[in-house]
């Protein structure tokens, strides 16, 4: 069991004092729920859980959130680390550490279905599923505005490491696409 | 006789220094590239490389066990202590010369990282597996530009030929029998030949290879690069962002 005092804003019912006991499963559920409200700093329409950056919540004697970076040089990695720390601290979960792991390497296949839809609604074409295995195939991005697949690539490198630039040949709008990785 | 740890330290150092120096070189294009898309692409590639360098140098510091972290290794070593290959420190020249360097390097880098990803040191393997995904994009980007410039106008073609000619002498060092990766040569040669054929270019004339980067014997260009890269942390020790 994990003992916490002064947990805040987590929808927990308290009995008498502020002390809460959570078993491993409850702790994991609680932390994942909490982090599902932490937005990605560059693409705030999706959370870091949607993107598959949060890999696991380890319980036991040294509880930790396990995260993995999307791109090795992505500057958002630092902002994400800080945002997780803030979210945990504000909820009273100061004892939970953050650990970074590189292996297995992050892939766009880990972006949740809900995350894909949020990206599309935000105007970013989500990466096709299962595409990580043939990531550089000449597949055409689908325009997130009009749904047309008559599109062309403008630049393989976009405004952030994880995106490429495209243009729709039907509605003429330029758009970002989450790169297959 | 260097111990196993020393060999592994220098191995990680070479991997980190190659990525760091090329990342710094490419950053010089930021805001100066011939067009916006190219500016974004070169800055993105530089960012990937600096990220990889940070990880490799971090592991190098751990292996060494002297308390040096990635920043210390990047900013507080002098030119003779760098172990990058000569290719990555060469000046950007014009865009075609930059593309020539990237084309030759990234195609080798991709093969190398595949090998590192399958290697036995788990920390290096994890970085390699991650880096190879990024480098696949770099190699393809550079190869496409070689075709575009080589098979383009008379001017772009002449510049592409000149760029490849300038960089070609630094290729042998990558495959050096002692400090390099001779086992990757055949596959690299095939990849390069394939793209050059598509670009209607002939392979540059054989040149006597220049080596020495792995031993710390660098061209004059590296010192100038380091003086710019290292200025701030040396002038203001302990400065934080």
Keywords, separated by commas or semicolons:
heterodimer; A: 181 residues; alpha/beta; four-stranded mixed β-sheet; three-stranded mixed β-sheet; 3 helices; 20% helix; 22% strand; B: mainly alpha; 66% helix
Q: For the terminal residues of chain A, how far apart are their CA atoms?
A: 38 Å
Strand content of chain A: 15-25%
Portion of residues within helices of chain A: 10-25%
Q: What pattern of helices and strands is seen along the backbone of chain B?
A: HHHHHHHHH
Give the low-pLDDT segments of chain B: none
Task: Summarize the helices and strands and which ones pair or pack.
The complex is a heterodimer of chains A (181) and B (241).
Chain A: E1 2-5, E2 19-22, H1 24-35, E3 54-58, E4 64-67, H2 76-90, E5 97-100, H3 113-122, E6 124-125, E7 151-155, E8 163-168, E9 174-178
Parallel strand pairs in A: 4-5, 6-9
Antiparallel strand pairs in A: 1-2, 3-4, 7-8, 8-9
Chain B: H1 4-27, H2 36-64, H3 70-75, H4 86-89, H5 95-117, H6 122-150, H7 154-167, H8 185-198, H9 220-235
């Amino acid at each position: 069991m994990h003992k916490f005092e002064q947990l805040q804003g987590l929808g927990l019912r308290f009995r008498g004092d502020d002390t809460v006991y959570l078993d491993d499963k409850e702790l994991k559920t609680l932390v994942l729920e909490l982090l599902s409200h932490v937005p990605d700093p560059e693409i705030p329409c999706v959370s870091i859980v949607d993107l598959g950056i949060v890999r696991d919540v380890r319980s036991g004697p040294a509880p930790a959130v396990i995260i993995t970076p999307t791109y090795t040089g992505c500057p958002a990695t630092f902002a994400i680390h800080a945002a997780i720390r803030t979210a945990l601290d504000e909820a009273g979960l100061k004892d939970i550490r953050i650990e970074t792991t590189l292996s297995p390497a992050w892939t766009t296949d880990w972006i949740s279905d809900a995350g894909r839809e949020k990206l599309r609604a935000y105007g970013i074409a989500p990466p096709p599923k299962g595409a990580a295995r043939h990531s550089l195939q000449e597949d055409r991005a689908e325009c997130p505005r009009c749904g047309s697949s008559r599109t062309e690539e403008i630049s393989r490198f976009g405004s952030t490491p994880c995106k490429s630039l495209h243009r729709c040949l039907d509605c003429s709008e330029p758009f970002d696409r989450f790169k297959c990785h | 006789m260097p111990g196993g740890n020393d060999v592994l330290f220098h191995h990680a150092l070479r991997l980190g220094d190659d990525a760091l120096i090329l990342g710094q070189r490419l950053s010089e294009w930021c805001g100066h590239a011939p067009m916006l898309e190219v500016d974004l692409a070169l800055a993105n590639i530089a960012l990937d490389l600096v990220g990889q360098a940070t990880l490799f140098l971090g592991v190098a510091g751990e292996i060494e066990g002297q308390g040096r972290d990635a920043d210390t290794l990047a900013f507080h070593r002098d030119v003779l202590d760098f172990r990058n290959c000569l290719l990555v420190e060469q000046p950007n020249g014009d865009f075609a010369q930059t593309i020539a360097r990237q084309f030759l390097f990234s195609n080798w880098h991709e093969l190398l990282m595949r090998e590192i990803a399958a290697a036995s040191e788990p920390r290096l393997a994890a970085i390699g597996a991650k880096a190879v995904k990024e480098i696949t994009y770099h190699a393809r980007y550079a190869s496409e530009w070689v075709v575009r410039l080589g098979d383009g106008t008379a001017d772009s073609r002449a510049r592409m030929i000149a760029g490849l000619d300038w960089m070609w002498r630094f290729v042998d060092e990558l495959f050096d029998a002692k400090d390099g990766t001779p086992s990757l040569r055949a596959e690299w040669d095939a990849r390069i030949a394939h793209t050059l054929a598509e670009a209607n270019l002939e392979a540059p004339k054989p040149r006597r290879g220049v080596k020495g980067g792995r031993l710390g014997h660098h061209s004059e260009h590296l010192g100038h690069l380091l003086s710019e890269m290292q200025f701030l942390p040396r002038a203001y020790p302990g400065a934080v962002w």
